[in-house]
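Morning!

This is the sequence you dropped in the shared folder:
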Amino acid sequence: MTASTATRTAWLQIHLCVVLWGFTAIIGKLISLPALPLVWWRMLLVVALLMLLPRVWRGLRAMSARLRWSYAGVGVLVALHWLTFYASIKLSNASVGATCMALATVFTALIEPVLTGKRLSKREVGLGIAVLPGVALVAGGVPGDMLIGVVVGTISALFVAVFSSLNKRLVEHSDALSVTALEMAAGVAAMTVIAPLTGLLSPAFGGDPFVLPDLRDGVYLLVLAVACTLVPFALSLMALRHLTAFGSQLAINLEPIYAIALAILLLGEQHELTLQFYLGVAIILGVVLVYPLLVRPQKIEHPEILATGESKVIGE
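The structure's back. Tokens below.
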């Protein structure tokens, strides 16, 4: 395969990944389970499938105890991110949840210097300020009963910024599939522990994770675990070998656009939201898409983020 053919194939692969990731919000809306059992089953299915691979077991054995505990801690944050992401969708809709995830890139630019000691740049501060009018328009453009979904979705984007920044602090590099399995397993454990507490927050959060989903939800969960998590994860790892950091970051930043377009086509959500909301979306996505132009992205160092975050923050 020539270099140009490999690059074209990689572009097709990464855009297919972005489309599949865009379906996570749609499927989350279609699943009737509350957020916690939805996340619990999704993570459990991913862990079960990954544990079938001998490579994963070899990678886990190669990790030091300190590193395993570090990744497990990140896995708890990943679980909280998914919990709040799907709760946001349940409390509002898929378009709102996807829009909030677009904020993760900006949050990471502001939070990462605090967690890693990296110097905060004026450009990144400017990006943070530029996104504020978009957030205000989004908040003002949703029905009053959906506003709590915007708040919870924003918290979810903050979790992305925190765990993606912490992953960059882990100086030892381990097998991406092994790290993903470990983080997912820690997430299942965390969701099991906090299940009684989430039921006190809202019906959108709570629910017994041990109740078997019905056939319809079971099929959606399997699609979520395989077609929207593991398949695009594997494809993206292959595609990133042939793409520049700028190109991959730009493509992956399109994920909220795909998700919102799918929500309009499949769920008709444009009837629930106002023009003001979509103007806010345009500002937020404009900032996110210009980010790679202003801040030089770096090659992905922790590819497990591509399997664990509904927002894929891969550059610095």
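Headline: The mean pLDDT is 86.

More detail when I'm at my desk.
O.
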